[in-house]
Amino acid sequence: MRALHVITGLGVGGAEQQLRLLLRHLPVRCDVVTLTNPGAVAEGLRADGVRVRDLGMRSNRDLGAVPRLARLIRRGSYDLVHTHLYRACVYGRIAARLAGTTVVSTEHSLGLAEIEGRPLTRGTRELYLRTERLGAATVAVSDTVAGRLRAWGVPAARIHTVPNGIDVDAFRFDAGRRRSTRALLGLPDTAFVVGGVGRLVPGKRFDVLIRAVAALPGAWLVLAGDGPEATSLRALAARLGVAGRVRFLGECGAPGVTPGVPEVLSAVDTFVSASREESFGLAVVEALAAGLPVVHAACPAIEDLPAGRVPGTTRIGSGAEDPTDELTAALRHRMEDGARRLPPPPAVDHYDIRLSSRRLMDVYAQAVDTAPVTPTERAHP
After folding, report:
1. pTM
2. Which of 117-121, 132-136, 305-309 tops mean pLDDT?
3. How far apart are the first and last CA of the chain?
4. Other C-beta atoms lying within 10 Å of the C-beta of residue 111
5. What is the pLDDT of residues 42-60, one digit of tens each?
6. Burial class (CB in 10 A: 0-12, 13-18, 19+), 75
7. Which residue, 88, 155, 209, 243, shows the most beta carbons closer than 10 Å to its own?
8. What is the number of other CB atoms lying within 10 angstroms of the CB of residue 131?
9. What is the DSSP letter of 121?
10. How many Å is the Cα radius of gyration of the chain?
11. CB 221 within 8 A of CB 245
12. Where are the alpha helices (H) located in 62-101, listed in sequence order?
């Protein structure tokens, strides 16, 4: 089988990084097309030996992108097209249909009121649903997302849940890595350090995390990620008088510049995800694999599992609009307990990338077998 993955952009983000990790484990010949922004993840994919092309889409209304993409699909003689993220799903489904190729789409970031961090409008939903019918299957990254798709009106038979996955071994705790990363970041050996990972956008509520740490003398904070809120979050830390106890790392993993996420998770003592809404919660699973206690708000990766499957986690924000006080109390409790590592819970193995790869291959096989393409559709222009 030969597959083409189409994604909206390849800057650093959860869906983009998930695609790169997935391609390392899929037993399929894969190429990648990005509609725009061939950023750091594109460089990483090329380093992995994956062919990456930039379609050069100029705006959301660059309708010429559809025939360009359809020609590329035809010339590549792909057996299947797999689209990722909203814009790529809309344009990619149409282009694949024009090219006469089976298409599968993954819904990475669908919330109740937002999609990919932007407000979810009636027009956005209608366009999504009209193009969804052109595909053979829609993949949800969690049962929560699958439920949201059904509520939209996507037929249940077309929805397949394939959870995001991680390389479990990459996140196992290493004491030497902890010492070296703390030294690199200027963190005292005995300090209680809180960690947060993600794009610095309003929905992640890193401002809540900064306020909670500010209320706990002796606590330190490491934030890994970049985004439009970076400047305001730095200003907030300065205004609260905790700039000296907060480390803003920017994007993680630049060789010789910043530690990677596994290194960050080895260095901290508790992980926090205060997101208002999530489709999965990949960083939480990575933290659990590192043996960290986790304090979280919305997190389908945990909430979709049976109760009791994920010890070491604390849920906040169930009632309060602003969970700062609740988070502060939870972190104070963690500090009083002292720094400790936990055995990774069994739930971590449920999210192993190798298992996700096998599940996705089942979706591919079913989609190709049940979506016949006519000779006319296969014909080249």
Report:
1. 0.90
2. 132-136
3. 23
4. 21
5. 999 999 999 999 999 988 7
6. exposed
7. 88
8. 20
9. -
10. 21
11. yes
12. 65-76, 86-99
